[in-house]
Amino acid sequence: MKPSSDRAAMPVAAVQMVSTPSVDENIAAARAGIAEAAAQGARLVLLPEYFCLMGRADTDKVAVREAEGDGPIQSFLAEAAQAHGVWLVGGTLPLACPDPGRVYNTSLVFAPDGRQVARYDKIHLFSFHQGENAFDEARTIQAGGAPAVFDAPVGRVGLSVCYDLRFPELYRAMGELALILMPAAFTYTTGKAHWELLLRARAVENQCYVLAAAQGGVHPTGRRTWGHSMLVDPWGEIVACREQGPGVVAGVVDPARIAEVRAALPALRHRVL
Asked: Which intervals hold domain CN hydrolase (predicted)?
């Protein structure tokens, strides 16, 4: 891996979506978002969690699951990465797991030539119960077992998904990062309370950028997601944000800014545990 001094600044973008129960509709929306991001100069593009399907029932994702390396959702991602010459991180999609009644909630990374270069299966599974709001991902999702990173031109990039944001030890296990990626579908309730707070905390404590792509709006199923896709810098400052609705959040990940923050406040070097 190149030292940080040899890294170049990299334009990045997060695509915010309001996905539907139709895979075809969602792929069309994602294609448009990726094209918009690339037109703005992004070299890395992040889609949100469940970009390909926000179903009417939890089991809908099981019905459209794919084997790794085979299926229309993965073909779309590989083709889009190659067509636009970008690093494309496909939010999440359902991949087959040993349990036929569940899936992995998987984030796949495609290089600008269309090759798959990294995979992360969501480790922490969301469960929330408050009044009529009730979620239990473990019913239809098999938890992953290991962190995942990849090396991009800007530096080491850490993969994570939605509920992972609440577990700082995951990011420390990845080592020093230039960028954390966070595709999500936060509920309106939990997002309003904690989303920005947690994103900025992860940026500050890891002294790196955080790029978050969210579902953001009222879906055809009636579910309401928080949105607020954003890019946060290593000092915890919000570089760009989109509150609600489909669109693109763009900015630059700058290794010089990372180095500046770490030199002024060398917290990573002061760690004891």
From this structure: 10-255
